[in-house]
Amino acid sequence: MVSKLLILGVLYFLGLFAKLNDNAIVFKYIPYGTIYLSDSIYIDKQPIKVYDYLEFLADIRRSYTPSLHDSIQKLPLFGLSEDEAYHIYDSLPMDTVFYNKMLTRIWKTVGNDKHIYEVDFHLTRAKYYNYPMVNMNYHQIVEYCKWRTDKVKLKYAVECSNLYQRKKYPINFEYRIVKRKEWEKAMGTFFEDVGKIKTIEVNPEMSNLAKPYVSKKKKKFCYESINAAEYLDDNIITIGFNWIDEAGIGDVSYMNFERPTDWITFRCVCEILPDKVNSAEIVSTPAPAKKPEKKKIVKQPKKEVKGIKTEKAKKKLKRK
Length: 320
Fold this sequence. Notes:
By secondary structure, this protein is α+β, with helices and mostly antiparallel strands. The protein has one domain. It has helices spanning 10-21, 50-61, 68-73, 82-86, 96-102, 138-159, 163-166, 180-189, 204-207, 311-319, and strands at residues 3-7, 34-38, 41-44, 105-110, 114-119, 173-177, 194-195, 223-224, 229-232, 236-244, 249-256, 264-265, 268-272. A five-stranded mixed beta sheet has the order 1-11-10-9-12, covered by helices on one side. Strands 2-3-13-6 form a four-stranded antiparallel beta sheet. Strands 4-5 form a two-stranded antiparallel ribbon. Strand 4 and strand 5 form a beta hairpin. Helix 1 packs across helix 8.
């Protein structure tokens, strides 16, 4: 069942002025393919394309597996050579089971109404490389995000030879699926770039067929209401952005949807996580130490020692 969020005309202005109140974490080089959204969140400019997902599959064939994730997190932040990064995979064989799980598949009808479950044709035909990646399940999206996190961290570690260079990039971060609140903020922040529709579409399967996104230099954020719907976290998908100019009112439609289909794609956000290297360390200034007071030495008068004295001692006393 489709639920709708009514967005008043002020959404546009909320999006524009939100940046003024954000505690932005700013780097010289932001995460690849993203644009700043709010606080510690950067969102992909476009949905993940078929070509992007093919890079993921190719890396699995080069022996990338989920078991490498923890090892990559423990690698040095900088000063990693290309050979060292390449040989991380050497000790592991290709994980065929994982590779087959990550292949997107579709049902196909052949002669005599026979149905076969085969690899999605989007992955096998070059003309679809610039299309949004579709026919994915939730598990495949999560694994893609983990892989992307690992690859970007490796890239930063190879590109930076010292800590000064490394601090120009995010230190601790992760790519993940967009949350609903983040999507709504993106709709307001990039209101002018969002491709809106004038009428509410009843059948998303007909109105949200995947089409290639054409890069436009003036656009910071690419989302077209008539293109593929997009996965959000918790198996929610967002459909369209209907807008009525006269009333200044729009609505984003959401629905729960769990099975893969050819009209749903996804994009990632990169969340910057807390780190000790790139954050300012608070150093408390110790109070100045008090100088120890000098003890006054009071000379005690010498007491005359009574008794038998030697001649030497007698002469000493006479001199005094």
